Records
---
Amino acid sequence: MSSNHTTLVSSKITSKNQVTIPKTIRELLDIGSNDTINWQINPNGTVVLAKSKPDLWQVVADQEKQFGNLSTPEIEWGPDLESDEFD
């Protein structure tokens, strides 16, 4: 976050229980469309909003969408020449 002071911004809850995150907050948290945010509700009722960091598997899924699947088919090596039985 680039701000060193407290910022107070208000939002209104719509009839569908939706809230628009104000531009000031989006800029301070560097968040935008398709970003995920975390809500932390403290025992005293305060709420902390923070940009979440994607987990490894979300990064992999996003890269797979962008670059395609990197999996390769298993190689067929032909029939085994040795017996599965051991001495």
---
Amino acid sequence: MGNTREFYYEPDEGEQLSTAVVTAIAKAHDEDVIAQKWVISDDINTDALDGLFQERNLKMTLQFEADTTTATITADTSGNPMIKIESHR
């Protein structure tokens, strides 16, 4: 099995969570966001993802598999998400 690398991504204020996940996975794989082969909507309901971590849903953690990675999204006490990508390439 290949090496596992960890990559952390903090979304910009106002950035949609689905966009942040796509960006984090692309950066973890050293790929261009537009040129990457993985399409988030093939695996994840982006509307549902973007609705998470709102003010009413503080201190949540979500983990899922996507494009040879494990993505873990954790919100701090203010509801601000941090994305951790573990690349299994």
---
Amino acid sequence: MDVVYPRCAGIDISKKDAKVCVRIQGSGRKRAASTVTTWGSTTNQVLALREFLLDNNVTVVVMEATGDYWRPSYYPLDERLEVLLVNAQAVKTVPGRKSDVSDAAWLADLGAHGLVRGSFVPPRPIRALRVLTRTRTMITRERSREVLRLEKLLEDAGIKLSSVASDLTGVSSRLMLDALNAGETDPVALADLATAGLRKKIPALTEALTGEFTDHHRFMARLLLDRIDAISGDIARLDARIGEAMEPLRGAHDLLVTIPGFSSKVADVFIAETGGDMGVFPSAGHLASWAGTSPGMHESAGRSRSSKTRPGNAYLKGALGVAAMSSTRSKGTYFSAKYRRIAARRGASRALVAVEHAMLVAAWNMLTNGDLYRDPGADYFANRTPAKTKDRAIRQLQALGYHVTIA
């Protein structure tokens, strides 16, 4: 097998140290020489390791993406060396020979022969933006959990507010909850605090607010509401910080929000996870595969087996799921027509993934060409194959007992 990198290093990283194997290809019939050393995980040790690798004229370094422990080693080494961060799933070592030293030697051997591909690691500004958007996602989920705890507390008190008001943290709901915490127990007075469209439901609110709200419930409700307010404040701070970090990428952000279903937050996540530079991905298909919205391939003995999508970027897939659900509820758009067309044959889950894939393809082309989104329209599939559309309509009418004549 051809040697692509005559001087290659493999690093097996743990929390406390790293095993480093430097592989130097021999000349002629001379075998390759490998030297394994152990280095600490502190910054000074990593910098010393970098000088050691440079002194040995190493041209490429291969390391596994092990939790978050790869970060302190990757960033300093990447400043002066070519570093390939590889998925552990793609570099499984030989069974029965598992150790840190053998892992480092295996990585060096794979890297020397060009058998590994480096993962996408964005530049420093995008990494900072990615931390902000991921933190906002996690904190938003925690806020939802606190709201669910509040709902359970109200159920325990016999207060069925959530069955009438869709949002327990909305303006009307907060007025009623604050009044309950203040000692108000009259359902009529509590229901009268409703505002805007919820006032049409005052009779239902009066029934729902009849319960036994004790001092224990007041204490717990106040505690949960304070936690919800604190988390909401943190989300607002993150929103402001993300807005500042997004300014250099405002052009890409403004393009993405023209896609149906793409809110400002979905666009934030897309840019944070992909970097906004589509030059990293050779084609729209590469982007879709990296995100985990493309069907897999498993063919053996001429037979195709499971083709389920492979794991991709969880944060990007989560944001795309929200965007896809939103777009399928719209009327007269290409995405809603695509969803209905596939859902009727293959189910809602596969249809959503197909819409996510279509969104990624659109985003890749828009950011590559700098064009705004142009919707093909809900009649796109009907116009593409008019004969099939006509035959399908005829069959549906005949199934209902009609005699159809085409004029």
---
Amino acid sequence: MRRDVFQAIADPTRRAILSLLALQAMTPNALADHFDSSRQAISKHIKILTECQLLKQEQSGREIHYHFNAQKMQEVDIWMEQFRKTWETRFNQLDNLLKNQKNTEL
């Protein structure tokens, strides 16, 4: 089964891993230190994120450092754009309604 970005970010632990890696590259052990989960569980999350191309690996001697691949998150941004436009329109309508209501009360 081929996973996609949306499946990857559906899990709160994977989102937390992405947040950590957005700040700096880390090894699997360094990542695991931030969680109460086992190292094996964190490795599974890393594997899924890597399969979805949200993480990039960099070998440095014996260690592997994982980097966040922000470009892959564009899929989410493109999908969210349709909703963003709707939300902005509705918020603007609400702002106008509240302004009109405030003006009529004065």
